[in-house]
Design a protein that fits this description.
This protein is an alpha/beta fold. It is about 35% helix and about 30% strand. It contains 8 helices and 11 strands. The strands form 2 sheets. Strands 7-8-9-4-10-11 form a 6-stranded mixed beta sheet, sandwiched between helices. Strands 1, 2, 3, 5 and 6 form a 5-stranded antiparallel beta sheet that branches. The chain starts with a helix and ends in a 5-residue tail after the last strand. The relative contact order is 0.19.
């Protein structure tokens, strides 16, 4: 039975630790992210941002503590259950894109559907249209600019309609124009009701979020709220 504090949070950690040998990369992390929030996780290089997001997105497991994702005790899942849970609940946008180089934009989207045990070309085309990439759906990643590749990545993250989108330095390899375009897309997705968790070291990007969770040396040091209109 879910506790009241878990039921209204899409992400919650309680006394979360991650250790590599004797080194604690994350120490006593206690965070709550409500359904539909846009949150930025910020901190200097080595602060534990990527480690935390890998745990929150079920790519890794904590050494100690509790972690609830969409009301379920994710820390109790085995590897196969985490994979299935990730396919159902999470969309990922990476700095390095991670597109399959010999597949077209459309095929990369449909591959994500395959891992979700469902192929729907019409749905794949719809999300490509949403991010403005329909005219380029037959192109290989090498034939796309960095901004175009990242828009394909966002379409891939959206295709299975997950409630949570994790974006790890989503504009780190982009110029200013494409950075603005990607942030506008993420903001639009947030306004559609999805929870967005964005990792960034850039304060100019952090202020796009409603709230900032700051990490320093593996510990949460502040939580800052913003009120914005886009």
């Amino acid at each position: 039975m879910k506790s009241a504090s878990v039921s209204d949070a899409v992400i919650e950690t309680r006394h979360l630790y991650k250790r590599f040998g004797e080194v604690a990369v994350l120490s006593d992390i206690n965070i709550r992210i409500s359904r539909g929030e846009f949150v930025a996780i910020m901190g200097a290089s080595g602060s534990g941002k990527t480690t935390l997001v890998n745990i929150l997105s079920c790519l890794d497991i904590a050494s100690e503590g509790q972690f609830f994702l969409d009301g379920q005790d994710a820390a109790a899942l085995d590897e196969e259950s985490r994979r299935e849970f990730r396919a159902d609940k999470i969309g990922m946008v990476f700095q390095q894109f991670h597109l399959i180089p010999y597949l077209t934009a459309l095929e990369n989207i449909m591959l994500a559907q395959h891992y979700h045990s469902m192929i729907d070309e019409a749905a794949a085309k719809k999300v490509l249209d949403t991010v403005g990439m329909m005219p380029r759906m037959g192109h290989l990643p090498s034939q796309l600019s960095g901004g175009e590749q990242q828009r394909v990545c966002i379409a891939r993250a959206l295709v299975n309609q997950p409630p949570i989108i994790f974006a790890d330095e989503p504009t780190g390899n982009l110029d200013e124009e494409n950075e603005h375009r990607i942030l506008s897309l993420l903001t639009e997705i947030h306004h559609q009701g999805r929870t967005i968790v964005m990792v960034t070291h850039n304060p100019e990007l952090g202020i796009m979020a409603q709230r900032i969770i700051r990490l320093q040396h593996g510990k949460c040091i502040t939580g800052e709220s913003h009120h914005y209109e886009v």
